[in-house]
Amino acid sequence: MSFRRIYKNSLSPGGKFKNRFTSPARLIEKDFLPRISSAPKNASSIEKTYTLETKESPFMINLEDLIIIEQNLSQILDKFNNPNSVLPACEEVYEMTAENTLNQVSLLYRDERTRDAIRYSMVLQAVGISLTHYFISEYSLNHEMALLIKSIIFSIHQGFLILTKFVLSRVPSDNTNTWALKLRQIIKEKKLRKHNIDNTTFLDHYNQLIVNNMKKMCRNFISRTDDPTARCLKLSVLQIIRHKGITISESRSLIEKAFGVKRENSEKLENTLKSPFLPETPNKIYTLVLDLDETLVHYIDTENRGKYLIRPYVNEFLQALEKNFEIVIFTAAIQDYADWILDDLDKNKLITYRLYRHHTVPAGNYFLKDLKKLGRDLSKVIIVDNVAENFQLQRENGILIKSWYEDTNDTALKELQDFLLAIPRNQIQDVRAYLKSTREKMLNGIDC
């Protein structure tokens, strides 16, 4: 769901379809050749994530996400009078934190006061970013309103720096992780204001400043407008700030409800999922795991309803591979969106299984696809994806394909088809060794 249009799409019959099927926020795309990934073992994509231990269970957090979010918050402050800079920054912050493991940082601490302060700061961040985006995009702000919103963003930024310190406190000081070092340098350069108080008290202080300014905004400005969206926003904001125990997902749902948007929630599915995801007995020797967006299709959002484009040679590719591979679609998209495409795309039922966002492992703003959870012999599993980070847990099984948008002359799947068909033809015993050998030949300039 694009935050850019979140307050424009109502749940009217026309808007409901568009909201339901707007493409989920995708990962940052990179332009790769349609070849097997040859990224070195020390690739920065591995270093971006850091595993944090909690009492409940460990989780991975993407340290680069913290840098990007901080940069966007700084941009909102520095370019406040330039909507063309502020609005995209708001959108990126909101979407990056929507289903980010950053929302689990509070679980690192047993102290309830610290947990509450961290959780509530993430709640207020989402609300503050939403208000900023809406009023800057829809109104010509007077001086007093502009100062009020900027004060909210300043406190959110300060709170986020404190949150970053909480994360870094769990990363050993002698750790050489590039992203951790960059974050420490950012905090040092930003000269976080502090008056000899602990981080929890400091975070509580900025949380309260945000709450006070939001109350003032509701009382002095929103109450005076006839804008129905602004009035709905006021009710949601007041409900959130009066209920300090509200969860991050609940607060986002309230804000989005004010804009007429219903967000799909996969939390219940995530809590009940058990691996292996696939039946115990495979019906083919080899398993081919395929990404969906920008690998097989590309979604386009239009005024009336969304549509998707099909990559050249998709049907031929599926028909050829289905004879020797069980084909699994593994997408970071939500199920409703993916099924809407796949029910239409796969009329011949060539795809054996479908896995969705709730089957992935959240790692910051990435959704990792852990092939171990498939319940298949990894020596017989290949994953094809246009984002290397998605299969970083089993890079040796991965083939990186060029992102596709609308190039009608693209031949990546046709080339890949011939390469993959050689695997069953040659009865390859371990696809990982086969892919490794191919990578090495490519690096040495040998024709594959």
From TrEMBL:
Name assigned to this protein: Mitochondrial import inner membrane translocase subunit TIM50
Annotated family: Belongs to the TIM50 family.
Localization: Mitochondrion inner membrane
Known function: Essential component of the TIM23 complex, a complex that mediates the translocation of transit peptide-containing proteins across the mitochondrial inner membrane.
GO aspect biological process, one term: protein transport
Subunit and interaction comment: Component of the TIM23 complex.
Residues covered by the FCP1 homology domain: 281-423
Pfam families: NIF
Species of provenance: Stentor coeruleus
Membrane topology: Single-pass membrane protein
One cellular component term from this protein's GO annotations in UniProt: TIM23 mitochondrial import inner membrane translocase complex
Coiled coil ranges: none
Listed InterPro entries: FCP1_dom (IPR004274), HAD-like_sf (IPR036412), HAD_sf (IPR023214), TIM50 (IPR050365)
Keywords associated with the record: Mitochondrion, Protein transport, Transit peptide, Translocation, Transport
